[in-house]
Amino acid sequence: MVVDFHTHIFKNDVIESREKYFGDKNYYFLYSGEKARMINHNMMLDSMNDSGIDFAVAMGFPWYEEKHCDEQNEYFNDVYDLSKGRIIPFGSVPIRNGIDIDRYVKGIKESGLFGIGEIAFYKEGMNQRNNNILRQIFDSAQRYFLPVCLHVNEPVGHEYMGKYEPSLKILYSILLDFPDLTIILAHWGGGLFLYELMPEVQEAFKNVYYDTAASPFLYSDEIYDIVIRIVGSKKILFGSDYPLIKFKRYLNSINTCVKDIEDRENIIHKNAKDILNI
Fold first, then answer.
1. pLDDT in tens, 163-215
2. Of 277, 178, 190, 274, which is closest to residue 235 (Cα–Cα)?
3. d(Cα 231, Cα 244) in Å, to the nearest integer?
4. How far apart are CA 96 and CA 32, in angstroms?
5. CA proximity to 64, closest of 103, 15, 98
6. Taking the CB of residue 259, how many other CB atoms lie within 10 A of it?
7. Angular region, 213: left φ>0, alpha ψ -120 to 50, beta rest
């Protein structure tokens, strides 16, 4: 079995009429360019079939505008049935002040969506306002027993669209307050896994996972062996960020670099099944 824990889909209108959504600053920032690829659930299923992917988690977009967030969550409410259970949708919360975040999170839980995310602060980064929003989301997610996926990019290296200062020290202080919440730090957690060499960090991060999304654009394949040695394979999730990168680029690397069969199975499907209860 293969479970991709990090993919992205949009409803047809968002794909075909992008300009209608350019008023949302987060969407405009990431998807106003012609090269930004977007797909719907049917296109996702076709690609999954071609690449031998059994299940895929569809991450929601961090909309700023409530109406667009609501539309996406409504679409995602149908995606699980439309895909016959193969696409597992996460819900989104608007990334702005003045939102009843607990109401959104409760709605995500009651509608049957499987988690929250991908939360990201592409336009503004982790400023004080966004840190407060993140704390509120974590608090409600913990209350309703929902896993959360958070975009965390690396603080050094080349620049790219959507990269922001991850403020790892501040993020760490927030994570400390939610030790029982299942948190997936996307993109290898921006390198935060390294600090699990510190016993107190390892203890605090007992429910923190790292996904591999965008790894071929960021790191050499040695990353797999290094992270396994530091945190163990039970805390790593295969995530492709599809359609950004094709599934097989990851699977080829994982099959080549992760020699131990149990480690491979943990990364490719076992950890995901434990989190999602599938």
1. 888 889 999 999 999 999 999 999 999 999 999 999 999 999 999 999 999 99
2. 274
3. 26
4. 20
5. 98
6. 11
7. beta
Contact status, residue 170 vs residue 126, Cβ threshold 8 Å: yes
Per DSSP bridges, beta strands 236-237 and 116-119 are unpaired
Q: Which long-range contacts (CB under 8 A, 24 or more apart) does 68-75 make?
A: 68/14, 68/21, 68/24, 68/27, 69/93, 69/94, 69/104, 71/11, 72/10, 72/11, 72/14, 73/107, 73/108, 73/111, 73/113, 75/10, 75/11
At position 58, the amino acid (one-letter code) is A
Structure tokens at 157: 């290296």
Cα separation, 217 vs 122, in Å, equals 18
What is the residue whose two structure tokens read 């016959």? 84
Tokens for 137?
């989301």
- How far apart CA 247 and CA 251 sit, in angstroms, is 7
Q: pTM for the full model?
A: 0.95
The one-letter amino acid at 13: D
Alpha-carbon span 28 to 108, nearest angstrom: 25
Q: DSSP 3-state assignment of 277?
A: coil
